[in-house]
Amino acid sequence: MRFSEDFLSELRARTDIEELVGRYTEIRHKGSRNPNALCPFHTEKTPSFYIYRENQSYYCFGCGAGGDAITFVRNIERLDYTEAVRFLCERAGMMMPNDPVDDEYNKLRRRCFEANREAAKFFCGMLGTPAGKAAREYLSKRRLTPETVKHFGLGFAPDSWDSLIKYMKGKGFSENDLVAFDLAKKTSKGGTIDAFRNRLMFPIIDLRGNVIAFGGRVLDDSKPKYLNTSDTVVYKKSQALYALNFAKNSNDRKLILCEGYMDVIAMHQAGFTNAVAGLGTAFTTEQISLLTRYCDELTLCFDSDEAGKKATKRALAMLSSAPLKLKVMYLDGGKDPDEIIKTQGREKMTSIINDAVNDTEYALNDAKSRFDIKTEDGKLGFLNEAVNILAGIRNAIERDIYISKLAGELDVEKNAIAAQIKKQSRFNQKAKENERFSEALNAVLGTEKKNSPNPELRGNVRAVKAEEIILASLLKNPDYLKKLKGKLTAEIFVTDFNRRYFEDIRTRIESGRSLDLFSFGEDHENEEMAYLSYLLTKSNEIENAVKECEQCIITLIEEKSKKEAPDVAKLSDDDYLELFRKKRDKKKTEGV
C-alpha cells in the first residue's frame, strides 16, 4: 500500500521516536547530546544505539541497525512496511488511509494467523474426545491441572492421516494453505497428510496473543520425541520464546530460562510464572535480544544431565556480552524442574532458585568438578583454570573475594594467586591491544568494512568517504543539487552502491518529493533504511558546505581516473608509445 506524503508527515509528527524506542530499551541522556541506549537488536554492555531527535531517526554503531520509527517497528516487531504503519497509526490514534488494495503478504499473514487459531481450537477439542484419552492420561500422570491445561491451550492431534485437513477444509482453508502454514505435508506420491499425528500439542503464542506455531510431543517412545512447526510467514523459531507472552508480565524483570515446554508449564503451575523456554533450536542472538527487552536478571535452569550442562555452557558463552545479571541453578534431587516439583514440591524448587549462583561461581564450580583437588596435580590444574576465569573479572573487590575463597579452600598463598591473575590479565590485555591494532591497520588499508555499510569500501576508502559526505549533504541541504549543477553527476561516483542512492536522492529532489526518512520507507528495505540513517549521522560530523561537496567531487574524479588508468605492463608497444606521447604533450601544454 502506498501512502501520501501528507499522511506520512502527520504520522511522523504524532510519533516520538524516543518514546517509541523507550518502550523496548532504557534510554540514557547523560554524557551525550543525543540520547543513547543498549541496542535492542544485538547484545552489548556499552550503549552504541543513538537517537537523533532533529530528524526522528536512530542508528546503532555496533550492529548497523538504523532508520526511522517505521523501520524500528518493522525490525523489533518483525512486521512488513504496511503492518508497521498500521502499528504506529494505532499508537497515534490515526486511521489508516482507505485503500481497498491490500498487500498479498499481509493477506497471507492474516490467513496464517486464522489457520493457526482454528487448528488450536481443533486440537483443544480433540483432547476431550475418546481419541484423546491417552493424552489426558499422560497429562494426569504429569500432574497438570485442568486449569493449567486450559491456560496453555494444550490439545491433541489424533492418530489420523487427515483429521485436521478435513476439519480445516470445512473452515474454508485449502490444502495449499495448510502446507504453506506447515499444518500439513505433501507426500512423495503427491498426496497431503496432517503434519502432526498422535501427539500432545503445545500452541506457541506471540506477545500479542496470536497462535503462531505448534510443538507436538509423542505419547510413547517413538522418534522424534518433539516435532515443531517449521518457519512460516508468521513464525521464526530462532526469534521466539515459549510462554514469554505470560512471563513478560512479571513485575520484577527476572526470567528463568528452561529447556522445554513441560518444564515451563510445571514451573508456571507451581507459581514460577516468569519461566520461558527455547523452541527446539540452539540458543540464538535473536532470543537474547528478546530476553533483554523483558528482564534484567536471567537464571538458567537446564537439565542436570551432561547434555544440560553443555547447553548451560553454550548459553553462558553467548550471554557473556548481554547486559544481564546471570545466574545458574543446580538441580539437586532431580533431572529437571518438572521432576523436582513433582517429587519434592514447590518449596524445594524455591530453595534451588534462591541458591542459584552467578556465572563466575558456576564456572569455578564446573572447573573444580573436573579435578581431584586432593592431589597436587589436581589442585594445580584447577587453579590454572580458576586464574583464567578470575582474570576476566573487572571489579577488584569481587575478584579479591574469590581469591580469598580459593586461597583458604586450597591452602595456597593469596598473594601467589593474585600475582598469577595479574600476569594473566596483562596477557589478555596485550591480546586485546594486538586485536585493536589489527582492526586499526585493516581500517587504514581499507580491509575493514565496519567503518561504512558500503560493501565496496575495500580499496575505495577515500572515494567512499567523499561519496558519503555528498549524499549526507544532499539529504540535509537538497538545494545543493542546483548549486552543484554540471559538476555533480552519477558518473563520477566510484561505487555502484552509493551511485544508486545518489540517483534516488537526485530524482526525489528534482521531482519535489520529500527527503524525510518516512518518505523513503515504502521503496527501501530495512538494510537500505539503515544506510540512510547512517548518512544522516554523517551530516552531524561534516561541514555541510557547498565547498566541501566541491572538494569531494574533485576527490571522486581523481579516484575515478586512478581506476580507469591503463595498466602499463599490459600495453602493446604501439599503445605504450601513444600513452607516452599524450603525457609529453600534456606536460608541454601545462608549461612543465
Explain what you see.
This protein has 592 residues and is an alpha+beta fold. It has 25 helices and 16 strands. The strands form 4 sheets. It has a 5-stranded antiparallel beta sheet. Helix 15 (359-369) packs antiparallel against helix 16. The radius of gyration is 30 Å and the shape is globular. The termini are far apart. The model is unreliable at 443-450 (pLDDT under 50).
Short structural summary:
With 592 residues, the chain is an alpha+beta fold. Helix content is 51%, strand content 10%. It is globular.
Key structural traits:
592 residues; alpha+beta; 25 helices; globular
Number of helices: 25
Q: How much strand content do the residues show?
A: 5-15%
| Biggest sheet architecture | 5 strands, antiparallel
Radius of gyration: 30 Å
Q: What is the typical, i.e. mean, pLDDT?
A: 85
Based on DSSP secondary structure assignment, what is the total number of beta strands? 16
**Helical percent range?**
40-55%
Unreliable segments of 5+ consecutive residues: 443-450
What is the molecular shape? globular
Strand order of the largest sheet: 1-2-3-4-5
Separation, N- and C-terminal Cα atoms: 63 Å
